[in-house]
Amino acid sequence: MQKLLNFCLEMEFYLKIALSCTIAQQLFFLLLNKLKLNLIIQVLLYWLVGTISFYAIGIFIEKLIKSDDSLTKKLTVRVKKVKKQSFPNFTLKGIITGEIKALITALIIIYLAPEVHRGNGLILNMGWFFMRIVAADFCFYVAHRLFHTKLFLKIHLKHHEFHDTSSFVAGHKSLIEYIIVTMTDVLPIFIFGYDITQLCAWTLIGNIYNLEGHSSLSVFFIPSNFHDLHHTSFHGNYGIHSFWDRVFKTLNPINKKTGIMFPANSIESKLNSLSSELNIIKSVNK
User: What sections of the sequence does the record tag as coiled-coil (predicted)?
Assistant: First the structure.
């Protein structure tokens, strides 16, 4: 039963990503369907969606949600307390450097990846996004686990300067790690091909779950302290979510957040409560 519940939790995460991406893709399709987009416009569009959503979502989490202490306490998933750290301030040089990297990356992806026009079919797009997140999770798991070997550890240490996490820690990495992580993220695009509406949707939703995952909050996509444990323990929990870590037995035990946003966790919590009550009744009857 526990294995089934864990599997439901992991599929819930994948399905949320796939469904959210599909909804976003429908919106992008409505906006872009009748426009003729050449290479340069696609590159600029892809880059702008990624850049604007990254800063907007990060600021929303850090400056709006976290400014409300009661809301932050309610949404916090971190269980293991760590010493608070001050995070680096944004600098003009840092922002410009980051955007140049992002723009070059967008250009390379759009130029090299095969373009496939898939339209706005709901089932087709949801299936594409579901395969996309499962494949991306596997690719990230492999790369991230390699980062924690002696051979590649130095590449990854910049990201692990923080035990306490903030949304923008998601983008705090060395240039080499940025390149490798980007390659793992876009590898499924080269396998499945890209449609610009799918690519924009993936970038938008990807920024949301990535920034939420580094925020120590459980808002919509993140149902546990999975990534917080990776930052505090420095081993295990290498994937985007727990599926591949469970498969390869590198999962650190997670504390699951229940609530309406996370039905699989709520069902498990209710079943555990029911089981405890039944055990109490049995012991009393004896």
Answer: none
